[in-house]
Amino acid sequence: MAASQNSLKAKGSGENFFSRLIHNQLFIPIAALAVLVLFNLIADPSFFALSLDKNSAGDPVLSGYLVTILDNASELAILAIGMTLVTSASGGQDISVGSAIAIAGSVVLRVLCGTDSRPTALQAPIIVAFIICVLVSMAFGAFNGVLVAYFKIQPMVATLILFTAGRSIAAWINNNELPVISDPSFGYYGNFIPGIPIPTPVFIAIACMIIIALVLKFTNLRLFSQSVGINPHSSRLNGINPEVVKLITFIILGVCVAVAGFIKVSRLSTINYSVVAKDIEMDVILAVALGGNALGGGKFNMTASIIGAYVIQFLTTTLFKFKVSSNAISAYKAVVVIILVVLSAPIVREKLTELRKKLVPEKSVKEAA
Amino acid sequence: MELGAVLEMRGICKYFPGVRALEHVDFTLREGEIHALMGENGAGKSTLIKVLTGVYPKDGGDIHLLGHDQAVNIRSPQDAQNMGISTVYQEITLCPNLTVAENMYIGRTKGALTNWKKMNTEAGKLLDSLGIPALPAQQLGSCSIAVQQMVAIARAVDMECKVLILDEPTSSLDEQEVEKLFGLMRSLKEKGVGIIFVTHFLEQVYEVCDRITVLRDGKLVGEYVIEDLPRVQLVSKMLGKEFDDMAEIKSESDTDNIDYNGTPVYEAHQLAGTTGIKPFDFSIHKGEVNGFTGLLGSGRSECVRAIFGADKTTGGKVMIDGKEVKINKPLDAMKNGISYLPEDRKRDGIVGDLSVRDNIILALQVMKGFFRPFTRAQAEAFADEYIKMLNIKTASSDTPIKSLSGGNQQKVILARWLLANPVYLILDEPTRGIDIGTKVEIQKLVLKLAAEGKSVTFISSEIDEMIRTCSRLVVMRDGKVVGELKGDDLNQNKIMATIAGGEE
User: What ipTM, to 2 d.p.?
Assistant: First the structure.
């Protein structure tokens, strides 16, 4: 009797470690990252090579695929922050972020260019352009938020409106012209600040992560949005206003869109309304899903979402590196995403735990003896 | 198998992480008997039933069914259904957005096509024969909870089962409906169906059951023929100790200290709501326990929801300590020191995926403000204090509340509102669907709070409980306050008479 109890205990603790690992929300995104790293190590270790070159302006900058990944994932990571919150509180996703980025970028250019689409000097300080862009993006976020929170429209349907209209609005803001900024200082935010070899968007993304970490620590945003996402009825009876909480998450996503849009136009110093940030909403939603967050709302793990964003970018860059044509890239991505999302589904994780149970019972008995 | 048995469970074991939910439990159900399964919260009743219906896989033991030579392996609820085991759960598990008929036949239609007309006609016939006031084509969600429960039973009955499990079916039914259900159970019994009846109402057990099996802490205490087990004995077996009769509760209450001439803690004049209640007056004094009573749907819950601002109010004057205040939303009420434990725990009370800790601190945290979160250590301290004080059975304060038993969930919600430190606490059906031990605990707690100077409004469908705890009762009928009883008038007969009518 005593022996059998011992073996039960030993088995229990072994299971605990494994199932804790499997059930940790960071497990899937980190494992996916590890697989991608491993694949590249085997296929072509030069993937990880870094070099210090001079860019066209003559400043030393770091280059290599890893830098590209970190750089290009910045917008994705910033947007994943807002999307995670929207998902948690509203139980749905905002599919208009790509279009909203076009609007945000267009606003920045409009403010900087004034009436002339090829200005020789900036018509307004960059900070003013940025602030106006943030305000406009917050307003569009609030528009989505009001539709979702007060008119109780499904988030995907509500944001379909801006998804459809956004790029036209963006073109209209600049009278359908394509302004180009020639002042090099505007390019610092999307490229390099002279003398610093690391791309600026990386720093901006890190700043956003620090800000959201502080917000989550020093406010009740996490508790409130999770509570609203899980059970709006009891949240209301506990004094929370579910509509306001949902609205706030959409406005926060608006701020994220503004920052991402600002980076996007700074990268090229111009904008192409129809292709800027195209399909980025899908990558962002994937990042949230890959982070193991329930797309139906409720509990969330911000770190997992952000890692998810970098995994998606890692995958995209890997595919580019192997010369997959840009038309075919979505198909490859889809395959990988299916595998990752299925693996991160709770039901599969439980099966994995069961499988492990079946595979190692003898070992546990030995441990007990 | 024993002669005449339809179901035999032998040595059933079930473990959850950190908990032994069932240990070597035996259970036998005979043909044509109503068998009560009794036990406290967490005794393992629900787990045993979920093992029997294939919701949980068992970790040990055998299940034998009449008509099967060997032990059966029940892998899913569908499996259980096919073997003739039907269940009506405590919490309604039907789909509110489907029609009544669809709910009755969902998952049971053969083939891909459904004959809607035939389905509706048959559903209508069955509903009629059982006297259930619902139309087949009506959306289930538009029916009252009681009717939804009865539809669930109708669904189970129609499946021509050999074993019918009723898990707390009466907790949301009023007396007439309970009688109807009992009639139905007796006629099924005559047809040879074995019925497992799980309930917390002792009277009901003695009214319809033939045998009782008692569980405690996941172990079998024993199986008894009903005549051999008087009530007091049953209760002591469930609690595992000699039971000091519940009557003791009343002696603890002391209503003499209440100053009825002083300013009431809470006072409402002609408070009117949008939920079908007539404008009403209501007041409560410091240290007083009063209650709203009336049949299901009489408006007693709607009244307290109006007081708390849970539903929109359309008129009337509210005074707290003699000062007029506006209560338009729950937060207004909370800031004025009112707490409200809602009737529907699952829908309005718990936040299922959140931890016990977050559920406990939620209300106080909201009152403290969005920008001032408690530190982890503070939250931990609050949670631990109340888990200990209310004796909440949970693996840790990190456990999601949805994995706790009903009674323990209720205690967590109670902890939430006690932590908010209200002056006026409204408890709407706090004892519904939980075991006797916890019921007594909650009633004692209510009286203790009153003794400490808090005011409590207590609502319960069990008139006994109301009489034991309340010093004044507001009686409701059809959305209207029809009387107020106190002192010597607080007895079962008088209350019944007032509820039933006979206008003064």
Answer: 0.84
